[in-house]
């Protein structure tokens, strides 16, 4: 059973702080990794994707991938109240990005 | 460019009935995937269609089926509805492989309530 685990939440951080969201996956054959953000009552929207070990930065967001440890994380710098949402980690194993295994998500709350 | 469009947004059905949901992908996207989202199980992959053929399938019973038309629009059907089928059903499309990284783009979903 291919699994994606996200550390239990909810996570609460003050405005301006760094929020760190973590995800582990069980299948070493996993090839690509995605972070989606989902606001309450809305559909998931893609924030970042990463394929190679190391860091990938996009604005206030940094995705980190460590395939040896089967670990992917998302850092949100200078957190804003508008970042309050559920963050979903997703992993693809079979080489096509259409079939993703999602974690249960972690709810982030940014306190003004 | 218009996003993924799903209709209807909300549906209420009774047990035993069947339902059909519709999805129009982003223009140029030929792959359409369907996911079910529930509070208990999270987001789970149902199936994927590409060029009118089912290319991948998740672990759902045969009551869940789908199809894709030549214009890439897709429908999914759930027969003999059960209370546990109440969920948000999300459709996603992705661009052809090789046109850059091709992550999924989700529609707004159809909220199905089975009573």
Compose a concise summary of this entry.
The complex is a heterodimer of chains A (112) and B (115). Chain A has strands spanning 4-6, 11-14, 19-25, 32-38, 45-50, 54-58, 61-66, 71-76, 85-92, 100-102, 106-111.
Q: Ranges of chain B with pLDDT <50 over ≥5 residues?
A: none
Globally, the shape of chain B reads globular
Low-confidence stretches of chain A: none
Beta fraction of the residues of chain A?
over 45%
* H-E string of chain A: EEEEEEEEEEE
| Biggest sheet architecture of chain A | 6 strands, mixed
Secondary structure tally: strands of chain B:
11
* Number of helices, where a helix is a run of at least 4 consecutive DSSP H or I residues of chain B: 0
Secondary structure tally, helices of chain A: 0
Major sheet description of chain B: 7 strands, mixed
Class from helix and strand fractions of chain B: mainly beta
Provide structural commentary.
- The complex is a heterodimer of chains A (112) and B (115).
- In chain A, strands 2, 4, 5, 9, 10 and 11 form a 6-stranded mixed beta sheet that branches.
- In chain A, β9 and β10 form a beta hairpin.
- The N and C termini of chain A lie far apart (40 Å).
- Chain A contains no helices and 11 strands.
- Chain A is globular and about 40 Å long.
- Chain A is mainly β.
- By secondary structure, chain B is mainly β.
- Chain B starts with a strand and ends with a strand.
- Classes of the chains: A mainly beta (112), B mainly beta (115).
- Chains A and B meet through β5 and β10 of A and β5, β9 and β10 of B.
